[in-house]
């Protein structure tokens, strides 16, 4: 993938909470710039890089993704979490029940290590990247993705999508979480989303959906 893209992201398959995510950037024909947590090093040899990676994650291997150029707020990248839920009974439709933006801490490329949580519209405004229209678009993408996943997983009722917006305002799904953390919603000043999420968790759809 590094032959195809300037920059990639490696994520441990055995779950990480952002801690062991590695960003690798091609830096000349046989050199790489590696960024992990707040540290960055250069490696001048492909074999060295592979050895380093194997030592770092012996057990599970990695998922590799193209690195997105996430929009930033004061040089800190951010992405958004969109909660999508459906009621009990798989014929019911998927709805967006909450969202927030995660702003990376100083020096970090991931937004889930000691990040700041703010309302999405505020993040879009601070980044001067868009307004409600962009959020509506991202919500539609999250709903469509959940619908597709729900066809495969009939019992699935909740997906927390991490969604990135790049500098060209393109919208990307970073990942979907089936047991998303609800704490950030509880901590938001406006508790209406948190209450809606809990309500949805417990409600059953009527027979006709
Ligand atoms: N392809 C990518 N390009 C840029 N940043 C990414 C990419 N994938 C992940 N990140 C950053 O790392 C964070 C954590 O990655 P994620 O896939 O959500 O794993 P997890 O939350 O399970 O640790 C994301 O929220 C995002 O800030
Ligand atoms: Mg995530």
TrEMBL record:
InterPro entries recorded: YheC/D
What protein name does the entry list?
Answer: ATP-grasp domain-containing protein
- What is the organism of origin for this protein? Cohnella abietis
């Amino acid at each position: 993938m590094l032959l195809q893209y300037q920059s990639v992201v490696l994520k441990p398959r055995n779950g990480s909470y952002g801690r062991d995510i590695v960003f690798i950037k091609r830096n000349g024909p046989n050199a790489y710039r590696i960024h992990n947590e707040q540290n960055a090093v250069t490696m001048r040899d492909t074999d060295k890089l592979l050895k380093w990676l194997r030592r770092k994650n012996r057990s599970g291997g990695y998922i590799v993704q193209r690195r997105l150029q996430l929009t930033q707020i004061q040089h800190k990248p951010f992405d958004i979490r969109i909660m999508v839920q459906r009621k009990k009974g798989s014929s019911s439709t998927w709805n967006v029940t909450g969202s927030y933006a995660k702003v990376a801490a100083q020096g970090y490329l991931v937004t889930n290590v000691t990040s700041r949580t703010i309302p999405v519209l505020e993040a879009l405004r601070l980044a001067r990247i868009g307004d409600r229209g962009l959020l509506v678009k991202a919500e539609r993408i999250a709903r469509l993705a959940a619908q597709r996943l729900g066809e495969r997983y009939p019992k699935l009722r909740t997906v927390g999508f991490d969604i990135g917006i790049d500098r060209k305002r393109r919208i990307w799904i970073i990942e979907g979480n089936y047991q998303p953390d609800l704490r950030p919603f509880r901590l938001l000043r406006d508790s209406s989303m948190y209450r809606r999420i809990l309500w949805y968790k417990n409600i059953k759809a009527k027979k006709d959906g």
